[in-house]
Amino acid sequence: MRGIIIKIFVLLLLTSGTGAMAQMKEIRLKIVETSDIHGNFYPYDFKQNTEHAGSLARVHAFLQKKRELYGNRLIYVDNGDILQGQPTAYYYNFINTADTHLAADMLNYMGCSVGNMGNHDVETGHAVYDRWIKDCNFPILGANIIENKTGKPYLKPYVVIEREGAKIAVLGMITPLVPTWLPENLWAGLHFEDMISCAEKWVKVIREKEKPHIIIGLFHSGLKSLQSVPPLEDASEEIARKVPGFDILMIGHDHRKCCKKVANIEGDSVLIVDPASNGLLVANVDVKLTMKGQELVKKEISGCLSNVKKYGLSESFLERFRPQFEEVKTFVSRKIGTFENTITSEDAYFGSSAFIDFIHSLQMQLGEADISFCAPLSFNAKIEKGDAYVRDMFSLYRYENMLYTIRMTGKEIKNYLEMSYALWTNRMTSPEDHIMLLDNTKEDNQRSGFKNFSFNFDSAAGICYTVDVTKPEGEKITILSMADGTPFDMNKEYKVAVNSYRGNGGGELLTKGAGIPADQLKNRIIKATDKDLRYYMMQYIEKHGKVNPQPMNQWKFIPEEWTVPAIARDRKLLFD
After folding, report:
1. What is the largest CA-CA distance in the chain?
2. Alpha helix (H) ranges present in 407-472?
3. Full-model pTM
4. Where would I find the H helices in 136-230?
5. pLDDT digits over 422-445, tens only?
6. Domain CATH code at residue 251
7. Would residue 550 count as lying in a domain?
8. Would you say residue 7 lies in a domain?
9. What is the 3-class SS of 370-390, one letter each residue?
10. Are 511 and 517 in contact (CB under 8 A)?
11. Is residue 322 located within the same domain as residue 339?
12. Of 166, 28, 181, 68, nearest to 119 (Cα)?
């Protein structure tokens, strides 16, 4: 009898153990992120009329291959800055506004689960991004984009995705410095909260209300900010370390590759991935959850950046979107005039150049200004001698900036240039030194070998000046006269043409450089265009038919016995 009881007891234990084991299961997820696609939808560069290595067409081929293994357990997210860059985006932003926006149509086709807003998406204005959001069959997030009249997020702050019993919460945020770069009419009725405090608030809500197994931050904000005073432009690593709760941060905005783990203040590991830009790479994250019923027993997270080129092209994608391709190609192939000489932004780094001075002259005419500030917006753009087409305008002027005419004193103008050239040039102490301020940033396509962002390297037109590269900031610039030979007055107020990015405080040349308080910038604006600069440039070229841009030669680097050979060395280093 005792033996029978023991056998029954053992049987019950075994049965109980088998039941417990039956409740244990593994869930394997694949999470893929694109960011900063910038209109690179096709394997074709509409600006250069050449093939392109990245593109959503290649990303789709990657997704198809991975879905063969993961099916519905693959979650694809896009992290914004998709509505600006290539003419594909511009065409569906402003020309063909009747059809479904191509960026939405493609992401829908690719099975995107979640999207996020980028600053260049906001740059398109309410009419464009509101239409794009409506066309997307998935939520576009923006926890820190706040509607003024309600005090609530303008977009969904987060979304919860369920796969085989696993709950994945995705919180979306954007860099809060949008008002620093963009005119208020583009984000009217909105304001942008600091990311760190916003993350703290919403992680608490998500944990208490949703009880997810994984929390992902989808942040259009880079890894680290150069500035230390909030709000930070690039706050992702700061959040990873200081705001417990996140398992993965999928980031973007800074166009810099990143795949690393950091520990937060509670000692937990947070994976941070950034696939850079243009659809060359994707963030490729594997999540393995061990579950006992609804209870999470263990989670394992790993990630890498995958080059999509080796997966080839998705023929189904290209066939599906062939009509739109032909439509955009027809748009960019329209002739607008003729350039009588070749111009390149390469020349702009080393002195007065036809490329930048052409923009200067247009800005001064359009803005009825005494002086113009302008920087090369593309590292190595070129417009060849001969017929010019719509596509060339995207090389001549990269962004959809408006033009402002603002009031500045002579002293503010000098201080502005002092900061610009300090960002741009090295202080030479011997003839063998670099003249450019260089750094190991060749793989960072926003700096391309420079220590700082070249879109902040403003030169001036309308004044004659020298830049002494042997002197420190504050002593580099000597303004000799106005361009017509009349005296330049430090105390006089001048009308200055700048793009809207700069006029709103972008790059801090007006605030930190010229010393104008940020809250006074708006009061300095005399006039502003209602369309972007590229539109007026096209109008100008079409009106004149033939243009022959030449350098104005209103400024130069000195001492020339040092700078001329240094320029030759650094030009070869940067552009060969």
Report:
1. 118
2. 410-424
3. 0.90
4. 178-181, 195-210
5. 999 999 999 999 999 998 766 665
6. 3.60.21.10
7. yes
8. no
9. CEEEECCCCCCCEECCEEEEH
10. yes
11. no
12. 181
